[in-house]
Design a protein that fits this description.
The protein is α/β, with parallel strands linked by helices. The protein contains 12 helices and 13 strands. α3 runs parallel beside α4, α3 packs across α7 and α8 packs across α12. The mean pLDDT is 96.
Length: 398
Amino acid sequence: MRISFLPFALPDIDETELAEVREALESGWVTTGPKVRQFESAFAAAVGAKHAIAINSCTAAMHLALEAIGLQRGDEVITTPYTFAATAEVVRYFDARPVLVDVGAHDLNIHADLIEAAITPRTRAIIPVHIAGLPAELDAIHAVAQHHGLPVIEDAAHAFPSSYKVRSIGSISQFTCFSFYATKTITTGEGGMICTDDDSWAERCRIMALHGISKDAWKRYTAEGSWYYEIIAPGYKYNMTDIAAGMGLAQLRKAERMWQRRLVIAERYNQAFAGAPELQVPNDRTDCRHAWHLYMLRLNLDRLQIDRAQFADELKRRNIGISVHFIPLHLHPYYREAYGYQPEDFPVAYHEYQREISLPIYSKMSDADVQDVIDAVLEVVAESSLDHSESSVALTRG
């Protein structure tokens, strides 16, 4: 058994991030400034977007995107129950309604074939979520959206650097919203990015991210700046700082290397777990790039003597950090009470949630760490399998 606890997630931070942050601090410019603009330009180039607007969270990014399209009270936005709170929460900021559509069992992304039936005259947008970093079926989603004249706002909190077929996530839909939270594939501590090719929407997001001020407020304090500004709308305080952007620049330069490491870990997990009938490894697609933000293992509970909670406890007892992604939105008190949801209203999300467990997958993991996770999972399976004769569990080193 592993002696020390292996955290579920850790950021990959070294001297490169420290140097960028130190440079920002020593420059005397610590709020929104030149490093933010550098980060925006570099990120836009990385994903192939015309515009990238750096803000302080993916939640803020989705809020600004919905504000830009003019979402209003009583409107509806289609999304998935199998997501984090923020995806639907931002819709409620407008006193609009998040309309939930169940997911596909194969990938846990919104089921594109079910979207059409959820559209009403009040529908204003569709927000697909790329769960774990595997892109949703964007061709089918866009076909429905275009038929009804609806913008698509991608919740890509998990999806950098992902691609759908030949295009990078960030270059496809009207808006794509990324997260740089501490556990994400690149981090700025807290942070996010909005990507769009629309000039007017980009300008609106940039203005509303900083109090509705019609100019770059940070330029007021530079040599070429002016004290004069105009407020054109009551905006928000969603701007990213240069300190955070410095981290982002360093992380962006390492993004491919970090993704390659996560890919290696995912492949090792798949190889180790694919032969165990008690386990279902995550879905992948040959025509997409999976970011592998999460490794979402699913338990075949009909082959185990224990449930997911007990399985998780056994892994933690073996010093392996785990998580669960996600408790579906319709199971939470707010959504039950506000909309009268029952667990079986979204049967796939409800069923798959009960058997999902997320394993550590991050670039700072050593080969020994990866093997410790594999050994722990297979030990728990071996001890809890209902049919020891069929279980092909074997502990293999290397």
